[in-house]
Design goal:
By secondary structure, the chain is an all-alpha fold. The chain has helices at residues 11-15, 33-43, 70-76.
Length: 84
């Protein structure tokens, strides 16, 4: 099984074939997923239920780093091992 590095996971590789031809009709943005998904499905003749909103942050307007406690910050830091 081929292992993929970070560089292989980009939008181009998921939206184009091996010849470089675009193989998708549109790409939806996660930030506006509900609106864009509703528009797309309406164009196809479908009605869909609203996208559920779960685990919503109540701390709007702050940096994402402010949402973590000091203990959480340590878990996000790279761990360097000497290998011994």
């Amino acid at each position: 099984m081929k292992k993929f590095g970070y560089r292989e996971f980009n939008l181009y590789n998921f939206s184009h074939d091996l010849r470089g031809d675009l193989i998708v009709d549109r790409i939806l943005q996660f930030e506006d997923l509900e609106n864009q998904l509703n528009d797309t499905m309406s164009e196809l003749g479908y009605d869909i239920a609203p996208v559920p909103k779960i685990n919503i942050s109540r701390n709007t307007g702050n940096l994402y780093q402010d949402m973590y406690s000091p203990k959480d910050d340590r878990s996000r830091s790279p761990q360097i091992s000497s290998g011994h």
